[in-house]
Write a sequence for this structure.
């Protein structure tokens, strides 16, 4: 029975010694602060990455809107310049060239749509593979010796 008390005392003493050594060790405290600083830096870096991603997404959206608005403004200027100044010569109208190009582009888009009358050239004619009805010659083992090499 005294051995059991000795073992329990030794075990409790060891645990208390490890706990006290951990708490009083300055390296342990430094390690904890460094680990906390590392976690804070990782969080800050992730926040910056997210902010940068949001910034680029918003900028792309704004550039898209700006491009659409610019196109709309240009088309409006071209239309109103020809409506308000119909007698102005074409060489003096800065939008005349773009108006004719725009009209040509629209007509080309309508003309360039090909009609599919034939199958594409990479398609095989007729059935192939398992659906092919052509019978293939089957050579029997006895005929192998006498078969002609092709």
């Amino acid at each position: 029975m005294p051995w059991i008390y000795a073992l329990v005392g030794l075990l409790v003493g060891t645990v208390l010694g490890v706990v006290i050594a951990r708490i009083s060790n300055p390296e342990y405290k430094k390690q904890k602060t460094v680990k906390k600083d590392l976690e804070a830096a990782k969080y800050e870096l992730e926040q910056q990455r997210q902010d940068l991603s949001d910034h680029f997404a918003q900028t792309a959206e704004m550039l898209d809107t700006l491009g659409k608005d610019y196109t709309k403004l240009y088309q409006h200027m071209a239309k109103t310049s020809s409506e308000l100044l119909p007698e102005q010569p074409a060489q003096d109208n800065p939008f005349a060239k773009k108006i004719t190009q725009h009209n040509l582009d629209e007509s080309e888009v309508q003309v360039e749509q090909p009609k599919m009358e034939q199958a594409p050239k990479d398609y095989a004619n007729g059935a192939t593979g398992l659906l092919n009805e052509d019978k293939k010659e089957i050579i029997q083992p006895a005929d192998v010796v006498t078969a002609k090499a092709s």
The radius of gyration is 42 Å. The chain is about 65% helix and 0% strand. The CA atoms of residues 13 and 19 lie 10 Å apart. The mean pLDDT is 79.
